[in-house]
Write the C-alpha cells for this entry.
Amino acid sequence: MGVLKGACMFGQSGGPTSVINASAAGVFIEALKQENITKVYGAAHGIRGILDEDFYDMGMEDIKELELLKNTPSSSLGSVRYKLKDVTVDDTDYKRLLEVFKKYDIRYFFYNGGNDSMDTCNKISKFMANSGWECRVMGVPKTIDNDLFGTDHCPGFGSAAKYVATTVMEIKQDANVYDTPMITVIEAMGRNAGWITASAALAGAKGHGADLIYLPEVDFDIEKFLADVKVKMDENKGKCLVVVSEGIHDKDGVLIAEKFAENLSKDAFGHAQLGGIATTLANLCKEKFGCKTRGIEFSLMQRCGAHVASGRDIEEAFNAGATAVKCACDGMTDKMVIFVRDMSSGSYECKYDVLDLNLVANTEKKVPLEWITENGTNLSDEFVKYALPLIQGEPNMVKEDGLPRFAKLKKVSAKK
Amino acid sequence: MGVLKGACMFGQSGGPTSVINASAAGVFIEALKQENITKVYGAAHGIRGILDEDFYDMGMEDIKELELLKNTPSSSLGSVRYKLKDVTVDDTDYKRLLEVFKKYDIRYFFYNGGNDSMDTCNKISKFMANSGWECRVMGVPKTIDNDLFGTDHCPGFGSAAKYVATTVMEIKQDANVYDTPMITVIEAMGRNAGWITASAALAGAKGHGADLIYLPEVDFDIEKFLADVKVKMDENKGKCLVVVSEGIHDKDGVLIAEKFAENLSKDAFGHAQLGGIATTLANLCKEKFGCKTRGIEFSLMQRCGAHVASGRDIEEAFNAGATAVKCACDGMTDKMVIFVRDMSSGSYECKYDVLDLNLVANTEKKVPLEWITENGTNLSDEFVKYALPLIQGEPNMVKEDGLPRFAKLKKVSAKK
C-alpha cells in the first residue's frame, strides 16, 4: 500500500440522525489535515450530487463552522435515497461516477449511511476496483435503527435512545397526573429492528418507564395487547404507558398500522387520514376500556433532537468519520468502520476497527430475542447494560439566545 | 394585618407544565422557613385531595428532594380538573372545604394553576372571607398557554416556547434534507391563544424557522392556506414548514380539526381514528400538491420537556411560589402573583407584584393582533422582543446515568 495522492469525496445518505453531521465533521477535519488528500469535496444529496457534479469545496469552510457540525442535526449537505442498479443490469450510473471521479481526481470516497448506503458504497468500491481506477472506498456507519451488522452499535442510535428514554420519563410524569384512568401509547421508529423502542426500558431502569414495550422482533397480537393493558391498569390504579415500534406486525408479518389503514382506505374518504399506530392503538383502548387515551408519535424529533443528543454518540460519530479517513490514508479500502466493545469488561471502552463492506451491506441486526422478557413486553437487564453506556455525556451544544447555534456552511461549489 | 399563625395548604391544578413543580418548590421551601406557618400540606390532586382529606405533610420531605422539584416536570402531587359550583347554587363543596380548613387549622391557602384554577381560588377566597374563617388565599400563576390576564407572562410559557423554538429548528434541518418536495405541518398547543405556536417565530429569528405560522387569533381559511403553501414552495424549492395551533378555526369559529372529524365520525368506522390537525392538513397538501408530506404533533412533549426548559422560567416559577408565601405572611390575601416587566428598558428584569383574584379569574389574554404579520402567517419583531428573553438560561438539570434525576417525594399522609 503506497502513497495515494488525490481528492476525497464525502456523501451523506439515508434518513438523518442527530449526529450524522458529527461524522461529516470527522471526515472533513481529518481529511483537511492529510497531506495526500489534495481536495476535500462534500456531495450535495449524496450519490445524487456526485452524478450531477453538484458538490462543495469543503476547504473553503471555516474550521469553527465545521466544528459546529457536531451539534447540528440532520444532513447538512443534504441526503438522498437512491439505490444503484446492479452493475450487470445497468452500468450507466457507474460509468458516470467513474467519469466524475476521474475528472476531479477522486482517490478517496467516504459514504455515510445505513444498510442501503453501505450497499451503494460496496457497489461503487467493487466497480472502481474492477475499472482499474485506484480509489480507496470507506463506509462510515450511521443509523438510529442500530441495525448494521458487525458493529457493536451504530452512530446515531445512542442519541435516539437518549431522546426516547428522556422523553418517556417526562411523559410518564405528565400522562399520569390526573386521578382518573389514562392509557398513553407512544410510537417510536424502527421498522424491522426494535432498538429505538427498546430504549424506553432505560427510562424503566430509572423508575419512570413504560409499562409495556412492543418490538417488531415479537409478533403482535391485538387481543393479547388489550389483555396486557388490562393487567397493567389493574396494577397501576388505572394508568398504563405503552411504547410500540412503528414496525409491529402480526404473525403473518402484516404491519398492525397497515391492517387498520386498509380498513380506512376502502372507504375512500377524501380528507380523512388514519392516525399513526399510536393513535390507532390508543383508540382501540378507548373503545375497550372506556377511559381517556392518548396516542403520541415521536416522529422526526427522535432522530433530530440534537439538544438531547448523547455526548458519547457525538464523539464516536466524529471518530468514525476521522477513522475512515485515517484508515484510507493508511491504505485500506472496501471497508466500513465498526465499533468494538468488550461487554465482559466492567467499564465502557469503544475501539474502532473495520469490516469488509461485503459483510455489512444489506444485513440487519435485530434485538436478541433473549433480551426480550416478561411476556414479550419488556427488556432484560442485559439490554440496559448494553444501551445505557451509549447515552452518556451531554451534547455541549453552543447556544445563542438560548437556542442552538447550528453550523452555517458557505457551500462553495467545486470548480468544474 | 397582624400575625396569623396556622397551617398552609398548597395544591396544583389544571394541565401540567415543565415548571409547575418549581412553583411547588418555591411555596414549600419558603413556607417551611416561615415561623407563623405551623404545618405545610400538599394536596393530592388539588382541590380533590382537600375535599377527600388526602394530602401530604411536606415537612417530612428532604429539602434536597424539594429542590429537585425545580427540574421535575408535571405536577408531582397530582393535578385535577374540578370546577367548583357557584356557591349560591350548591355550597356543599365549600362547606366541606371549610370543615377541612378548620380541622387542620389551615390559615394559608396557595393554589397553582391557570384560568380555571384562579376561578377556584377566587371562589374559595370569597367563601372563607364570608364565613369568617381567617385564611389568606393566594393564587400562583401557571400555564403554558400564557393567557392569564394581568401578568406580563406566565410560568410555564417560557419552557414551552423554548421546546417549540428548539424543536422547530431541529425539524427544519431534518424535514428539508432530501432533494424532493416536502411539506411538513406541526401542531402546537393553544386552543384560544396562540402564544405557544407563535414561539416558532423564535426559530425564525435564528434563520431556521417555519415558513408559515397560523394562530387561533386569526380565522383560518383552507383555500388561503393552500395558496400560502404554494407560494412558499415556489420560493423554497418545493419545501414548506408550517406550524399551526390546535385551536385554528374558520370564520364561524368552527375548529378546523372538528370540521374533518365530523366527516369521519359520520362513517362510524369501528377502529379508524382521525389524525390530529397536523396530519389532516398534511394530507390535504398531499392531495393538492402530490408531494411527500408529514404531520407532527408536539403533544405532551411541549409541556413536559423539562430537559429543555428555560432556566429563567424555572427561576421565576420558583419565585412566584415563594412570593405568594411571603405576601401572605405579610398579610395579603385574595390575590394572584403577577410578573411585571418594563418593555421599554433595554435589559430584561422581572418584578413580582400581585393582582386581585377577581380581575384574573376567567379572563384570557391573547396574542395582540398587531404582532401578527405577513398575511396572518408570521409574527413581528415585537413578538420576538417579548418572547426571546423568556427562554433564556439552561435548566441545570441533575442527571444520573445521562437521564434526569426527578424528585422522589415520600408523600407522607397528613395525620388525620
